[in-house]
Amino acid sequence: MSRDAFYITTAIDYVNAEPHMGHAYEKVGADAMARYQRLRGRRVRYTIGTDEHGQKVAESAAARGLSPQAHVDSIAGRFQEAWRQLEISNDDFIRTTEKRHHASVAELFRRVQLAGDLYLGDYVGWYCKSDETFWPEGKLVEGNCPTCNRPVQKITERNWFFKLSRYTEPLKRHFEVNPEFVLPVGRRQEMLNILEEGLEDLSISRSTFDWGIPFPGAPGHVVYVWFDALINYITSVGFPADEASFGTFWPADYHVIGKDIAKFHTIIWPAMLLAAGLPLPRHVFIHGFVMTPTGKMSKSVGNVIAPGEMAGKYGADALRYTLLREIAWGQDGVISEEILVNRYNRDLANDLGNLLHRIATIVEKHFGGVLPPVSEADAGPLEAELRAAARKAATDAAAGYDVFSFHQALEGAWGLVRAANQYVDRTEPWKWAAGKAGDGKKDALAPDAPTARRRLGTILTLGADALRQAATMLFPVIPGTCQRIRDALGAAGPVVWDSEGLLAGSLAGCRVVRGEPLFPRIEPQSKAEVAVPVKPAAAAKSASARAALAAPPAELAYDDFMKADLRVAKVLEASRVPNADKLLQLKLSLGDGQERQVVAGIAQSYAPEALVGLQVVLVANLKPAKIRGIESHGMILAATDGDGKHRVVTPDGPAPAGGRVK
Ligand code: MSP
What we know:
This protein is an alpha/beta fold. The structure holds 5'-O-[(L-methionyl)-sulphamoyl]adenosine. 5'-O-[(L-methionyl)-sulphamoyl]adenosine is lined by residues 11-14, 22-23, 25-26, 51, 229-230, 232, 257-258, 260-261, 289-290, 297.
């Protein structure tokens, strides 16, 4: 049975170091799910936070010469700042040093004690400070922690124990009855294997340091940091005081965590809840790890990518989009600045940003910035195709989001972005705007003005509506961009998942504002400059390579220069080359009825319609070549501006087509 409330959490991060890309990945993924569920009308509670107790944090504070409290206050602030930069829409940020959490831990302990599941015993074994995890000797790998491979320390302590072993069978049953308790299902077996081996009781107090929650009724002992941290999930929704809130949101729908902490969430935490007589979370979703091209992120390798820095440089949405588009949630994947720049240019600038620019430019020029009505009377096969693409995109995107398959959700939504760009390519609004027949009707007579205008209106408003709806489907991942698109199209009201009224022309009458480009193109200077990390030798090499490129070519004799036949040409038609990001196919007039076809690599700098009517300079006697199977006879000249955009060379005033340029 579905319910109105939806509760999602991420791991709470250790405050022994700065926020890194792995932390960001998890928060962004869970944020996309929280935003999606809000869009679908659920009452969402999204909790993130910081895990502030334990030996490791105490040592980090000491290393900074700060009290533990001063240390955790400053680092928790850094995490909050990073999540603000990434536009994380959490409803709560819980810190385990808060009073409300201490009260919640005390009550859970009372219940576990009442169940008879706590006892005092001697712990002799190994401890990984970095992961704050106890390990029996047999689990160590070459004497090191099996998870992080760091050295472990031998511990002999009189500690309090939790009777975890008692829960082996109840947990097995829970796994059986709830096959989707652990997701993705591929991870479930790993946890079942642990249960098959049988669980050992867990030491849950520490007495060799004091940075933790005092262990109830055991002076000199603090609660084991994991036992304290896991309880945050119920503290956040009001346990134990706020029964209404707790009753609404608990059990959580999803705990979203990384694979290194799966056992804590799928075995230890459920056992604690069973002992306390509380319901278990519905699902634990285990995501994969973010790596860099040079392997695991680590300070010593120097390949750490700071999420806040990336968001500051390229925008939160570029980072959010890249993280969720590049890596299949649940699997490991690689992220680098170069990958981000590629995604930014290819998807966000070329496809999405350009679509808005193309539509807004014509609406501004020909309709005073107000989206015209849609004429259903002349909606034909192209409109039917666009509407079908919108329905398919909504279905595919929802199917992806529903199961945390963000890359599929984005691919689904992108189906509509692509279809809308194709719709504009194929309907050729710039021709209708010039009083000619568009829609690929090459030999048609010029239509009468009202017909052309009506057709143009339909194309623009349906194109705009397709863009608005694609933006809605992308909202969970790139919320800021979605809002900017809506503002630019004059779409009022809240974002709603409106798969019912797809492309109904409801934007007619809205005022379009052609503002700054959504994603101004970024020109990577060289591969080495954006890849991380840059080794000094590699950087030097690329600098010398650039210097060589910038050096002027050898001198040219006048006669040799005159061999180049440069001519003024007028662009008659322009269209994108299918499946080629950078190419435009141009039809040029050289006067006297002479025409030329040229393929030019300027698609990332010009929308096709922006070129029609423009005078350009053609290298007319260049040997013909086939580019992507299309004949290209000649080359047009273009400069490159500071941002790497092409600027086509054009005569400074009217010049006859076919005239020689010298
Ligand atoms: N404090 C514990 C969690 C307690 S939850 C009650 C902890 N903290 S952590 O800071 O080490 O990790 C926080 C989350 O980030 C974990 O889910 C962890 O798996 C995730 N990641 C840490 N590095 C990661 C990557 N490189 N990639 C993706 N996520 C990774 O564990």
